[in-house]
Amino acid sequence: MQGPAIFLAQFAGDKEPFDKLETMARWAAGLGYVGVQVPTDATLFDLEQAAQSQTYCDEIAGKLAAAKIVISELSTHLQGQLVAVHPAYAPQFAAFAPAHLRDKPAAWQGWATEQLGFAAKASQRLKLAAHATFSGALLWHTMYPWPQRPAGLVEAGFEELARRWRPILDAFDDAGVDVAFEIHPGEDLHDGATFERFLEAVGGHRRANILYDPSHLLLQQLDYAAFIDLYHERIKAFHVKDAEFRPNGRSGVYGGYQGWVDRPGRFRSPGDGQIDFTRIFSKLAQYGYEGWAVLEWECALKHAEDGAREGAPFIRSHMIRKSRHAFDDFAAGASDANIHARILGLDRP
Question: What is the largest CA-CA distance in the chain?
């Protein structure tokens, strides 16, 4: 496992040091991070130029290296969302599109697909192993089935989602980079069952993988540790984000349209919630996860900069350097067929 790294999306702004990638890198390094997950917002990172210019990518990598920081992954969460948007949600997602397309939702998919193609090439130029994104959603408005979903609707929805993503996955395959879909409510890929449906629809595409964020699983009341047992071969990115779920007599999983502070399920800074990160890091080590551990700060209470300051030592204290030998090797005996027979009581006169 590599890390600690930090996702910059929640910190980027118009004031120093959060207004430029290189100054954010120095800020992150000062807190103990060695990597940054970079949102491909034009103010921080020119995705199209990165796709077209090795010189640009080398310059970016050089500026970050001067701060002793590397890029863990690029992120196209906003662009990925626009690969598939149900018209009912268009007003809410309009801000994800560039200004000249915000009132043209029919053009969003084409623009987003192009952006993901740029991301594949840019990731290749930067020698990155994985890319973080969202799947988008055509079916989310049918998540709670009332009235009941018509037969075949879910299959049709995933068939269409797969049709949109298959050429993008092929572009990432050509680039040698894994697509890590963040399993997230609001996306059609929001749990293990929906990921399996998508994976089947894209023919088991080897670049269709997972960004594992236990906070989204806890708030759905999934077994977030068992999720690793089931899908560890597909987990290629990891957000270290905590959460808590405390249902009451007024509301539960759905939150009652309340703000984050008041709802029963809410995100917390790592260590402040209910997630057992010792167990998570142990399982990821057990299965040989080689990607990054990336802090994603989202907390209903704590100040962002306090969460960032606490995040690097939290991640570092949980990372496990896997042992190269068994703890009881010192007492091991020789491996020999005759000895095996004697131990089993098979070596009889």
Answer: 90
Q: Which residue has the tokens 């006169």?
A: 349
Residue count of the chain: 349
133, 73 Cβ separation under 8 angstroms: no
Tell me the per-residue pLDDT of 72-119, one tens digit each, with 9 for 90 and over: 999 999 999 999 999 999 999 999 999 999 999 999 999 999 999 999
Q: Phi, psi at residue 33, to the nearest 5°?
A: -85, 150
In a domain, 349, yes or no: no
pLDDT number for residue 113: 98
Would you say residue 348 lies in a domain?
no
Full residue range of the structural domain in which residue 92 is found:
2-343
Q: Under the phi-then-psi rule, with left for phi > 0, alpha for psi from -120 to 50, and beta for the rest, what region is 21?
A: alpha
Q: Model pTM?
A: 0.96
Task: Determine the Cα angle at 89 with ends 84 and 93, to 5°.
Answer: 75
pLDDT digits (tens, 9 = 90+) for 27-54: 999 999 999 999 999 999 999 999 999 9
